[in-house]
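Contributing new records

If you add data, match the layout below exactly. Sequence lines come first and carry their own label; structure lines follow with theirs. Keep one chain per record. Anything else will be rejected by the validation script.
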Amino acid sequence: MDLPSHVDAVVFDCDGLLVDTETSWTRAETALFAEHGHGFGLEQKRLLIGRTLEAAGEAMATYFDQPGTGPALAAHLEDLVARELAAGADALPGARDLVVALRGRVPIAVASNSRRAFVDAALTTAGLSGLFDHIFSADDVDHPKPAPDLYRAACAGLGAAPSRSVAFEDSGTGVASARAAGLYVIGVPSLPGTTLDVHRTFETLAAADLRTWSSRVSTGEVRTQP
């Protein structure tokens, strides 16, 4: 399927999609799992990726067989991640070029399941701050991803119809949110061997087809060809 050539808006996830924050999250998660006597690998990462801190805390409480400890685990993970992110994070390949190419052609926003402080810090250290029309975080909605609320809020903030907008996501949780909101979804998986339920998949935001698309896309009714 061809990429939409006429869209109302483009909405990006942040962690693992625009910015390499997953390295920081993985170090923090590895340390927390070790504290509880568990190793941390791809299986455990898939359990947590794309979730909010609160949801990650509950997932860890279940995994550790420690009912009721979800909030405490989430708070501890937040502290560990904050320390890791303080060292900064880099933009992922193609991220800045794609965002800059789209800026001014179509409205663009970020819709992240992280807390606003984390999103702002990530975008700033990666050199992406100030490039988006709006930034939405888990703090801005009652029901974060995988619920559709974040993508609906982003589209509303941009004056865009979800059915005529494009989402970029790297995780199953984010894809479920964007799909539920009715957006056309482009996947760039952050974990190896991951298959996402998206309309198109690319290995990186630096893909040639995305560069070409970003130089031609414009606002208007979405038109795709099978």
